[in-house]
UniProtKB/TrEMBL annotation:
Chain ranges passing through the membrane: none
Keyword vocabulary terms for this entry: ATP-binding, Nucleotide-binding
Domain of life: Bacteria
UniProt-listed Pfam families: AAA_3, AAA_lid_2
Family: Belongs to the MoxR family.
Entry's Gene Ontology molecular function annotations: ATP binding; ATP hydrolysis activity
InterPro entries: AAA+_ATPase, ATPase_AAA-3, CbbQ/NirQ/NorQ/GpvN, ChlI/MoxR_AAA_lid, P-loop_NTPase
Protein name: AAA family ATPase
AAA+ ATPase domain residues: 51-195
Species this chain originates from: Teichococcus deserti
Length: 334
């Protein structure tokens, strides 16, 4: 009789987490051969994908956001698709549309033609250059992993992730993303300029006769297994309390910190706590640890919270920044 491994066995869980850590190290090495000088950005994007979520990359053009998404599609073995968001883009250009076809016998019927959203890794490039109507076309796909069209429900492939890039809202021709859609992104990742050494290495590596190419280090099936394993990692009471204290403390209605009560118009909902819980688990595995810590909560507080809260008018007039409020919340955790 063949013995079946007990999925609740802690020794088995430890072995699986350690094996996943080895595979993820290969993933980071593969990405690092193509992407230079953005270790924090790469880490946070990998955390998002391991958590099963979507990520919003914010930064000025030319910082390699598009290159990062293309590289991750190759390295993670995902079928990718790209949509360039423009002011005249329509929801059907993303989701698909129904066309009327006539058969040889004269009978007519509608057929659904799938849009680019039917992939495993969707790059929504410059998402805030499209109108709010088109932006919101992704809401159901991001939350429910399906598309409803003309009364029919079409499931999306698994895994399914949206990696959206956004230009700073101060730039011309941009539309702010609706709050409901921002909340669907697990993390908001700021992409900044690389340091001098990284930019020098990038110049030497990308302007010669041969350029480094991304290579697959994981498959879609292995990624799904990794996402399921992340959810099985235990979280200690101290970490759970820190997550709840951080998220609940960021709501003006229930906050005890003066900085929150005075400066925020609204705060994060329960989805922020869910995102932080999953992201802390994923960060621990990426760092080769078997359980998350309060340090993970502090490290991920800003990318999880900053797109889920808003300053009130008086705070903006006084020059207060969201980063200042989040720093006060992190400091309150001790």
């Amino acid at each position: 009789m063949v013995e079946v491994a007990d999925p609740t066995d802690p020794n088995l869980l430890v072995a699986e987490v350690e094996a996943l850590g080895v595979r993820l190290a290969r993933v980071r090495q593969a990405v690092g051969r193509v992407i230079f000088g953005q270790p924090d950005v790469v880490e946070q994007v990998l955390i998002t994908i391991l958590s099963g979520g979507h990520v919003l990359l914010v930064g000025v053009p030319g910082l390699g956001k598009t290159k990062l998404v293309e590289t991750l599609g190759t390295v993670l073995g995902l079928a990718e698709s790209r949509v360039q968001f423009t002011p005249d883009l329509m929801p059907a250009d993303i989701l698909g549309s129904e066309v009327l076809e006539e058969a040889g016998d004269g009978k007519r019927a509608f057929r659904f033609i799938k849009g680019p959203v039917f992939c495993q890794l969707l790059m929504a490039d410059e998402i805030n250059r499209a109108s709010p109507r088109t932006q919101s076309a992704l809401l159901q796909a991001m939350q429910e992993r399906k598309v409803a069209m003309a009364g029919q429900v079409h499931p999306l492939p698994a895994p399914f992730h949206v990696l959206a890039t956004q230009n700073p809202i101060e730039q011309e021709g941009t539309y702010p993303l609706p709050e409901a859609q921002l909340d669907r992104f697990l993390l908001e990742v700021e992409v900044t300029y690389p340091d001098a050494a990284a930019e020098r290495a990038m110049l030497l590596a990308t302007t010669g006769a041969a350029e480094a190419k991304a290579e697959a280090a994981l498959t879609a099936a292995e990624l799904l297994s990794a996402q399921a394993l992340i959810r099985r990692i235990p979280v200690g009471e101290q970490v759970l309390d820190a997550i709840l204290a951080l998220v609940r403390g960021a709501r003006p209605e229930t906050a005890t910190l003066p900085a929150v009560r005075q400066h925020l118009a609204w705060g994060p909902g329960p989805r922020a706590a869910q995102a932080l819980m999953l992201a802390c688990r994923a960060r621990a595995v990426l760092d080769g640890r078997l359980a998350p810590s309060v340090e993970d909560v502090i490290a991920l507080a800003e990318p999880v919270l900053r797109h889920r809260m808003a300053l009130n008018f008086s705070a903006r007039a006084d020059g207060v920044k969201l980063a200042d409020v989040i720093d006060a919340l992190k400091a309150s955790l001790g």
